[in-house]
């Protein structure tokens, strides 16, 4: 085993270790250091001097021994040497209560008699501050804000031996930022807060306070945006700088007044037609107000006021879009509710009423701006007639004829209802239809028509309509006369009434038939001495005819469907009055008078022939009247002979008549005009050539009823 080492010295520089120095022992390869405290000990193997025993307790007295070691074993322990570990380092608690101070505190250290604390800037600039104290805390003041300082502290014992030191780096809290500025964005209701950067500040916090509400934003830069500001509020804005030491004092608060809130309780009313009154409640921080009114045609007007109401001119039938803004130095309030107000629709213009019939009015007008529907109202003393429609025309029916109505057209809109200020007009309906009461015949071709007059200020027109044409008469009374109506015609007679309001419907038609026409031509032909044939042209409208020949000696009459008639029992040589009645199918009669008719003179009687010489014959007769002239005709196979004696004579001589022939002899009265009469009796005589006699041959032969 090696020799026993000898301890030169033992000392403590750290509170958990003791360092031992000795002279080397030949042959020793290592050394065993032992530190004993009562029953406890700590051993450490080292290779050479000096050696240190660690893991010891601070401020504790230890007995130190050493042994040398080689392959042969260990030496005996050396004589002991006493050594005491130094004091433990104080454990510091460091803070920066203000931007220019650092507070240091620690717990009491065992066996410590005092403490030394030093402070200097970590960058080595400036001077070091040192404080010795028996207390467990102290404060360094008048430091630079936001600066990193290194703090070193140790305790010493009663002998002044220092213990372990404790080093701590601490930054002072930052100084409050300077140059705080607030830029307010009224449109976004947010603010940009900026300031000058502060030495040593790592972050910043901006606080905007109003009442109990606080808004914050944090940043590491020199500006920060505070969002979601409320309108109509005054905020107090401050900035606090932060680092790992703490915070600065808040900056002096900067007042920020936001834009006012949008006005509320907006009311819009039309205090009178054509005037809109817009009113609202005042808002906080509102200095003045601007009201914008935009009509649906694009025109916009505005009103600037410090009061809470504005007046605007308005027109009917428009929709106005209304918004109210409040203003202050910060700017314009946010957009609030946009209100729309629709004024009452305009009254219809160019309103006109036309009578379509006596019980119907058509009312038309130009479309009214803003109107979605219309109501037409016609009022009289008996009631109201209504018409609803979306078109600009309405037909009022079931009205009373010849009546004045107060007609009004109202316009409607769903938003505003009815415009009740529309003007009315008095409109009269067309006259009532007249009622024909009587048609009377005043004279030939003159008809009087009577009707019931039940209209005011009406003119009546009566129309007779037939195949012959149209005939009219007009009157403002209750009758008028149709003249020059053609005979033998059928008409439909109706009446209408006219007034400035219009024309009535026609009355019910009444049939009218004029008397048949008298025939234009009437011809009398004497067929025999007692029979006359009468013929006439057709009389328009006539169905039957009654012809009459009348004289003081008697009357001859005939009723026939034909246009001719044979009248017997005519007295020869008599003047007759001729009349004809044309009778229609319905029994209407026209009495027609014609020129008088004279029947031919009576045929002579006692006709005889006597020979005058060889070739002459004298014809004798008895005249019916002395003033009548006669005509004698002889007809034979050898010739025809005629002689007409002077008036008053009753014989006639014919010379140079051939004998030996049979002659037919007719003596008839001479007429003023027309053909010779052929109905007088015919006598047949044989004229012989021997002797002087004329033989009479009697045979039955027709001679208009006489043989």
TrEMBL record:
PROSITE patterns in UniProt: FN3 (PS50853)
Superkingdom of the organism of origin: Eukaryota
CDD domains for this protein: FN3
Segments forming domain Fibronectin type-III: 1-88, 89-175, 176-261, 262-346, 430-517
Pfam families linked to this entry: fn3 (PF00041)
Matches recorded under PANTHER family: FIBRONECTIN TYPE III DOMAIN-CONTAINING PROTEIN 7
Protein name: Fibronectin type III domain-containing protein 7
